[in-house]
Amino acid sequence: MSHFPKEAATRARILVVGDIMLDRYWFGEVERISPEAPVPVVRVVKREDRLGGAANVARNIVALGAQVTLAGFIGEDEAALSVRHLLSEAGIQAHMITDDAHPTTLKMRVLGHRQQLLRIDFEEKPTPALLNALRDQAESLLSGHDVLVLSDYAKGALAQVELLIEMARQKGLPVLVDPKGTDYQRYRGATLVTPNRSEMQQAVGAWSSEQELTDRAQALRAELKLEALLVTRSEQGMTLFTEKGREHVEAQAHEVFDVSGAGDTVLATLAVMRAVGAPWSNAMYWANRAGGIVVGKLGTSIVTAGELS
Asked: What is the rounded CA–CA span in Å between residue 94 and residue 72?
């Protein structure tokens, strides 16, 4: 596929469910060390909020021209107001479940001279009642979409991921998962799982050769009954495992500036390509191109259909 399918993408309808986060950036200048402790003093000159986690996946899908619906949790706090504003601004159809006792997940980063100096996380696991509400919300939304995307950042939104996969399978929807943790049995029956290199090592152990990786990846894919397993490998590119065998593409990045959210961009591109009926090899090609572009940007960013074309 020599051109990104922009026209077909506009008809794609993708449901994203997962951990919704706000990425907050404080940019500053560092000119001295604190007299109170041996730490740099950052004079903040710019503040910026961006959508993170599942919300960043949704933002990337919109940027590629497709239609997206997002479901997940936020609180009733200042960060939630920012999330709602950014979702509306991006054109994302959001079905948020709110709870004043559940704080919005927030990652706050302090940067000096474009270098990250500190990150502070605010997060809390959801209650069983919230999880049940999200399950019901997702079930009601599935029938209006072509693909289900599950964005797992281990913040708790996908604690019932097995039920979400089963509901989608019953409706004939492909399920794409960005995984977390070591228990991949949770993702059994998904269509595609996209671990990065570190996550794959956690799941199957370190490998000493490409053949060993292939053997372990194919064994995992068969055990979990996946149609495809895509391992993103940073500077080593991406490797796709299906019943047809192994396919690999080399990394596209010219300069790696910031890998924050790169997995979101890759997942979003794969979802759009699946929704338009592209084979996995083509989907990997475009996801690799998109990932190569986004790592050249600062912070949690997006890639547009225009940039891919």
From this structure: 9
Residue 93: per-residue pLDDT? 95
pTM over 0.90: yes
Q: Is residue 37 part of a domain?
A: no
Number of domains in the chain: 1
Distance CA 186, CA 188 (A): 6
Tens of pLDDT along 166-214? 999 999 999 999 999 889 999 999 999 999 999 999 989 999 999 999 9
Q: What does the pLDDT look like over 22-44, one tens digit per residue?
A: 999 999 999 999 999 999 999 99
User: What is the rounded distance in angstroms from the CA atom of residue 300 to the CA atom of residue 51?
Assistant: 8
pLDDT band at 233 (very low <50, low <70, confident <90, very high): confident
- Which is catalytic among the residues 19, 23, 49, 264? 264
Q: Is residue 118 part of a domain?
A: no
What is the three-class DSSP state of 109? strand
Q: Do the domain assignments include residue 308?
A: no
264 included as an active-site residue: yes
Dihedral in degrees, nearest 10, Cα atoms 293, 298, 302, 304: -50
CA angle 272, 275, 277 (to 5 degrees): 115
d(CA 28, CA 42): 5
**Residue 71 structural domain:** 6-20+52-103+124-303
Give the DSSP H/E element, type plus range, for residue 149: strand 147-151
Place of tokens 């019953």: 170
Is 178 contained in some domain?
yes
Instruction: Give the CATH number for residue 152.
Output: 3.40.1190.20
